[in-house]
Amino acid sequence: MIGPLTLRSAARKWNANSTKEGVLFDQNLPAGGSWSRVCSRHTALTVTDLEGGASIPMLLYRAEQHGERYCMPDTLKAQHVSCLTAGNALYSDMGRVMASIVSDTCGWHDTISGHLTDPALRERWGALSYQEARNEWRRSARDLLLLELAKHGLDRRDLVANINLFTKLAIDDGGGLSFEATNSIAGSQITLRFELDTLVILASAPHPLDPSPEFNARPVRLSLNRVVPPAADDLVRTWCTENARGMAESETLS
User: Fold this and answer.
1) Which domain holds residue 30?
2) What pTM does this model have?
3) Residue 115 and residue 208 in contact, taking contact as beta carbons nearer than 8 Å
4) How many domains does the chain have?
5) Three-state DSSP class for 235?
6) pLDDT for 216-254, tens place per residue?
């Protein structure tokens, strides 16, 4: 297992030597919005928290076969982690690495607490329809994720455990979870390099455990770039033995 100092050094090395070959797009995901796209192997998506306090639920599916998708249990047990940061791989339910976190200035991304549903939204903040609030209307992460899934022939049966980018939960001595509002500051970034052609689904909605009395969806910036393939000494490949195996499995599909 790589130690923290080695990890930070490796992250800087990736930034210096990744040789970005071209920007494919660069755009904002507005607060309360959703987004989906197939991100090809050997591209990297950088998500930037523009204002601080963002919570971005994310789902991943293999582009050629949607039945293969991000698997939270395998991702955590393979790497002996409970949250995600630079050096971690995102595994599919077929044991392949779908994406690698090659850079992260936030340091903690939640994997276990799910996403905001309509009943939770109504209970916490009250519903506001489009007719009432126009572009300020309130939509749950569940609604936004289902909207994007439908664009690709998927539905609620295809929902799996999601990742919450930029979100951190603290665990007390009794096992209770509490939301840490200051985990992500303005300008925090995470970069995901794709090891398979991957359908990425993102939404911008408050975390279900956010105690704020205000409905605080936040905007993020999305930048997709072409990058070089991972080397033998790649940060994620060498994080643990299982990652080397999982990345090798992904490479057999090339």
Assistant:
1) 4-251
2) 0.90
3) yes
4) 1
5) coil
6) 999 999 999 999 999 999 999 999 999 999 999 999 997
